[in-house]
Write a structure and sequence with these properties.
alpha+beta, Protocatechuate 3,4-Dioxygenase, subunit A, five-stranded mixed beta sheet, four-stranded antiparallel beta sheet, 8 helices, 22% strand
């Protein structure tokens, strides 16, 4: 699918994100009371209100239905405070990135230059369709930190995430969803280095541990024109106890059960060679339940 060259620039103007080009103004970020207008670029879309609502309901239900899910990722170092971090390892962007580095149906697929890719709620398609991906709601907060600067938050970086749907399919590539573009989106980090996404919980397909792909562009939206310009390409590993709860408790994920029982983090061809510290950081901390949905956070460390 060929994109045009002006879509991303329209998003840039619409969101007034040019002001965030100062991506490494860490001295400014470290000062007290840095409430900058860039916060709007960290979570802006119509999905923000639904994400906040889901987070609230998840927190309410977590005391009764998700103690095992929360404890499953208690070892994760992800938090809203960046006291310590490690550099996330570079991982493959896989065969389905739609970032201009490979082809789909015989043409280059690059959502990064499409108008509409900058969004917080990524559950719906935005290219030629408005189909919403069916699945259990998952609100994800990511925080970007520089490991060479005492884990200080990095403002103004663009983060692109994508993952499979509840059936294990990737939009634009997999049979049955080649005309869909859901579960893909870009956000720009705010003064705390944070972005938020509203999405669904990813399935487990054959041969892979449940995961979410991401790419980091330190120079922001202007650099996010292709995966070849990414400063970091990596993945998040979904927590084990939550995987079990979702796949066994939500009938939309029934096909994931056998696939999940046949894989482990150590046997996964992406996560298997990572250190325990890396895996801990790459695993989001989650709260919530199958009944109410989940909310989670993860820290991304980058050598910047």
């Amino acid at each position: 699918m060929q994109g045009h060259d002006h879509g991303l620039h329209r998003d840039l103007k619409a969101m007034s994100c040019e002001m965030l080009a100062r991506r490494r103004a860490l001295a400014f970020l470290a000062s007290a009371g840095t409430a900058v207008t860039a916060a709007a670029c960290g979570g802006g879309s119509s999905g923000a209100s639904s994400a906040a609502s889901a987070t609230s309901s998840s927190s309410t239900s977590s005391s009764t239905g998700s103690s095992s899910s929360s404890s499953s990722s208690s070892s994760s170092s992800a938090s809203s405070s960046t006291g310590s971090c490690v550099a996330d390892p570079t991982e493959t962007n896989g065969p389905y990135p739609a970032d201009g580095t490979n082809s789909s149906s015989g043409s280059t697929s690059n959502v990064l230059i499409q108008s509409g890719i900058v969004r917080s709620d990524i559950r719906s398609s935005f290219i030629g369709s408005t189909t919403v991906a069916d699945g259990l709601q998952f609100d994800l907060e990511l925080q970007l930190a520089g490991v060479n600067t005492g884990c200080a938050p990095i403002e103004g970086a663009a983060i692109y995430i994508w993952h499979c749907d509840a059936g294990g399919r990737y939009s634009l590539y997999s049979s049955g969803v080649t005309t869909e573009s859901y579960l893909r989106g870009v956000q720009v980090t705010d003064s705390d280095g944070k972005v938020t996404f509203t999405t669904i919980y990813p399935a487990c397909y054959s041969g892979r541990w449940p995961h979410i792909h991401f790419e980091v562009f330190l120079d922001g939206l202007t650099a996010a024109s292709t995966g070849r310009t990414a400063d970091l390409i990596s993945q998040l590993a979904m927590p084990a106890a939550t995987n079990t709860a979702v796949f066994s408790g939500d009938t939309r994920y029934t096909a994931s059960i056998a696939n999940y029982n046949a894989i482990s983090l150590s046997s996964d061809n992406v996560f298997g060679d990572n250190t325990s510290a890396q895996i801990s950081q790459m695993t989001p901390t989650l709260s919530g339940s199958v009944a109410a949905g989940y909310a989670g956070s993860a820290l991304i460390g980058i050598a910047a």
